């Protein structure tokens, strides 16, 4: 990774957050994340993969390999 930094693993991030934030707040954030994930999944299934909206979602998601595979498999 550029800049000499390392990417923090999801599990490590959750562990660090748990030590800093109240448990109920973390649970609330996890529920919100799950809801957003579900909504995004529905949106991705119903949209035209070549639309400007699909391009915006890809750019927001960082264009990871998983999203590229999803969109290319639905063309």
From TrEMBL:
Native organism is Musa acuminata subsp. malaccensis (Wild banana)
Q: Which GO terms describe its biological process?
A: regulation of DNA-templated transcription; regulation of growth
Q: Name one Pfam family in it.
A: bHLH_ILI
Name this protein carries in UniProt: (wild Malaysian banana) hypothetical protein
* MF (Gene Ontology): protein dimerization activity
- InterPro entries from the xrefs? PRE (IPR044293)
């Amino acid at each position: 990774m550029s800049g000499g930094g390392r990417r923090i693993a999801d599990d490590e991030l959750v562990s660090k957050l748990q030590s800093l934030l109240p448990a109920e707040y973390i649970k609330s954030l996890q529920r919100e994340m799950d809801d957003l994930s579900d909504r995004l999944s529905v949106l991705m299934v119903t949209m035209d993969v070549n639309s400007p909206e699909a391009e915006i979602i890809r750019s927001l998601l960082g264009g990871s390999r998983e999203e590229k595979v999803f969109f290319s498999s639905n063309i």
